[in-house]
Amino acid sequence: MQVARTMVQTRGYNGLSFRELAKEVGIKSASIHYHFPTKGDLGAALAKRYTEDGQEYLEGLRTRSDDLRVWMKGYTDIFRLALVNDNRMCLCGIMSAEFDDLPPEVRTEVEAFNSLNVRWLSEVLSVCRPQLNQEERQQQALAIYAAVEGAQLIARGRDDISVFDQTIETYRSMGLLP
């Protein structure tokens, strides 16, 4: 699963190959097919695990601290970490770019990741911007999520982590990020 995740984060869903995955892991392709009959099954399992890991991470941010700045820094840091780690993308972010090519089961899991991020950010906004109604929080949460994913994408395309850092700092100074 880790090798497949790395493949998708660097090459996208369309770059995921059972043959290359088997070669990298040192097993036969049939062994992978035994556990994941289709590429869609493997992609859905990857996105689901990524979402579960993300949920655990985000819940941990709020459990370990009451400081909003710690929450938001931790949030942006996880996207930054993917870039630091061989200039990778968020797994579900890169899959979202290929959404039309994804099988339905993968789309469902990618949408779950997107929803997780918007829901978590909306909860954070309810703390720091209590004057917003639920719809306004949802819209701002989606804008924040899209902005952070976009900053990651542009930084990756330039192979320059400082682009991400500068963009996130600009978002903070302009008030997009709490």
Automatic annotation (TrEMBL):
The keyword Nuclease does not apply. Residues 17-36 bind DNA. Residues 1-54 form the HTH tetR-type domain. It comes from the Bacteria. One of its GO terms (molecular function) is DNA binding. Keywords: DNA-binding, Transcription, Transcription regulation. InterPro entries: Homeodomain-like_sf, HTH_TetR, Tet_transcr_reg_TetR-rel_C_sf. This is TetR/AcrR family transcriptional regulator.
